[in-house]
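User: For my dataset I need records formatted as: sequence, then structure tokens, nothing else. Please produce one.
Assistant:
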Amino acid sequence: MTVIRIFKFRKRFPNGGLAADLSAESIANGRSYEQHIQVHRKIYLSPPPGIHWKDLAWLCVGTSLHSESLSALHPEGIEIAVHRLEFPLSDYRSEVAALAIDGWLREEFNLPDMGARVDYSPETGSHVFHWGNTQDPFADNL
């Protein structure tokens, strides 16, 4: 039996912050939900109903950061079923979905930090996201 767990992503900056709560479960052998997306080989992601397409895309990015490790841990396949992604509109950008699932996966499977993070640039007044060794998460050469 799997357990649904909640991960609370919080990043505070002097002028505010970013936040999201993600609840999910992992299912060995994967593909038990009707709607699922293949992230890597036998690694699948099931999104919550009604999710915005940008949030879904970033959930896939966050999962893909750990795809090799997940494949090694579960060569038979695994599905990550996201049940909820909640966030206050004032403290959210869609990239935060990737950071939330990254944190959830690291806790769930004791995975190493892949370098995904967000900083705030006072010079530009905006958030700067980093994806470890991945320069452009949506490039075809991943």
